[in-house]
Amino acid sequence: MLKNVICIGAGPAGLTAAYELSRNGRQVLVLEADPEYVGGIARTHLYKGYRFDIGGHRFFSKSKEIEDLWTELLPHDFIIRPRSSKILYRNKFFPYPLKPFVTFFRLGAVESFHCLFSYLSTKVTPAMKPRNFEEWMVSRFGKRLFGIFFKTYTEKVWGIPCEQISADWAEQRVQDFSLTTALKEMLIPAFLRMRKGPKTLITSFRYPRLGPGMLWDETAKKIKSQGGHVELGTIVKSLTRKENSWIVSCEKNGEKIELETADVISTMPINLLCRALNPQPATLKLAESLKYRDFMIVALIIRAPLTFEDQWLYIHDERVKTCRVQNFKAWSPELVPDADHNCLGLEYFCNEGDSLWSMSDEKLKEMARSEAGTLGLLDPSLVVDACVVRKKKAYPVYSPDYAQNLEKIRKDLHDNYPGLHLAGRNGMHRYNNQDHAMMTGLLCARNIIAGKELFDPWLVNQDAEYLEESSP
Question: Of 193, 291, 293, 424, which is most buried by a Cβ count within 10 Å?
């Protein structure tokens, strides 16, 4: 019987699974398409000594096992950072999560009255169970606040109207937070709140001093020290079921390679996986209906010290295309090698092949420099260098019919493709946090080690808990 395992993808799920398998004596091979980096969207890009995260990652989890695993993997290189993010709206900074008194003061008396009236109206005549993201948010903040602080940003991120986004996304990412929750958090001291009452957002988190990629680089090293292998620049072309094993065909540097394995853990996007399967699944058309949002970040190196204290700003401004701005020195001072410089990352969401994705690097750099000036974040003349990074299929889209399609695909793959295990954000088409993705990889590995399905990775985060919240 074959005892080896192939993990497709060297993101948090794939590397965590490989680490667990290799330290339990299994022969593990990780195949990663990227020719240079491990970590997936949690990697840290290096440019002329500057390091930047291509999607902000706070290291905090309700799972003690995941917290302990982070410590085990990187015992001496975590720093503690204060949690700080804001919304930029009409050239004013609003704390996020929203704080009612500050928010209403900065909006002004007239606008605040309209917002409160709108919010109270939703409580007087509450809607039925929300069917989409817009209805879900309006039920918790009112239509006016939703339009000010959520609509513009969300539609930039996903590229579709808010009413075409499943309510599942809000339930998973925002969950219990609402204007009512914010008021209770502000007015009721923590020691007076019931333990099962409103949750409190964390005020600090851990962060690797050289960015999240530092953790995944170290994980890859540990996998290798335990007898495993991590192959970069390796593209999986097909997976063929052969009696009690899998034949994985891949390509590296133009060379075609065939590998035989007992089990496959896939973290590649489900639509690509289903196209690669031989025989192809009956649910292939459903898999191809699953959509992803692509991502770009333009890192601007500026000749100026820290310009604002927040890790990132959410941009609610129709004048610009950027959705969010990261401040890398606020994540860790060591990401920026020059004390008198800083690095800001302007994030853009698009679809592969559209006008934004196809824009040249030079035009993207100029647009980002101009937009940072428009937002009042910097003097464009202070930008001394810039770098563009593109990431395909960064976020799975929660379209209205995604859940029912995904359930059919999941059942088809489970019933008809033994030895195939799905894990991770893209591998399961679930907008999971990093620690959720790690846990799905961990549970897949433990099922393989046990030789039976002891755990169901699909139950991870099923309760829609937002893991940046903690009970008081």
Answer: 424
Distance (Å) of CA 323 to CA 102, 111, 299:
22, 24, 14
Q: Give, in order, the Cα–Cα distances in Å from 188 to each of 191, 309, 409.
A: 8, 27, 46
Instruction: Say if CB 344 and CB 274 are below 8 A apart.
Output: no
Distance CA 59, CA 297 (A): 21
Structure tokens given for 418 = 């033994």
Amino acid identity at 35: P
- The model's pLDDT over 268-284, given as tens digits with 9 standing for 90+, comes to 999 999 999 999 999 99
pLDDT tens column, 118-177: 988 887 776 678 889 999 999 888 999 999 988 999 999 999 999 999 988 887 766 555
Return the H-helix or E-strand segment holding 69: helix 64-73
- Residue carrying the six token digits 């209205």: 400
**Amino acid letter, 357:** W
Q: How are the residues of the chain apportioned to helix, strand and coil, as percentages rounded to the nearest 5? A: 40, 25, 35
| Other Cβ atoms closer than 10 A to 36 | 10
> Please, which residues bridge with residue 79 across strands?
207
- Distance between CA atoms of 211 and 328, rounded to whole angstroms? 9
Alpha helices in 359-459 (DSSP H): 361-374, 402-416, 425-428, 434-450
For residues 390 and 54, the answer to whether their CB atoms sit within 8 Å is no
Q: For residue 429, give both structure tokens.
A: 């088409």
3-state secondary structure of 21: helix
Backbone torsions φ then ψ of 252, nearest 5 degrees: -140, 125
Across 218-350, the runs of DSSP E, i.e. the strands, are: 229-231, 234-242, 245-252, 255-261, 263-266, 277-278, 292-302, 312-316, 324-327, 342-350
Q: How far apart are CA 335 and CA 45, in angstroms?
A: 10
